[in-house]
Design brief:
6 helices; globular; disordered N terminus
Length: 120
Amino acid sequence: MKANRRSGRGRPSPLSPPLPGKERVAADRRDAALELAVAALGFIAGERDELSRFLALTGIDHRSIRTAAEEPGFLGGVLAYIAGNERTLLAFAAHAGVAPEEIEKARIILAGAGWERDTP
């Protein structure tokens, strides 16, 4: 996914020192995972049936979804929801222009687990 050029996301803050190699790569991966998860939430919200299913399975009320989105782990849960249904997974992957396995990799990153190339 491409960084949002208008907001400056994806670029280091001019006030913070650049991160060394591995830390920068990890931060870039986390940023990309967050961006994919936000896109997944938008995808769910844009599909009435998908949103109803998501809300029913998570127990979140539609009026409190913004508050829930600020909770740690929520966006990882969004990706877990997407990955939990093959039809939804394939539809979102096509929508986002990513391979389906990238969604699971992003979920793992957001869960805080280490990520390596060979991770499913």
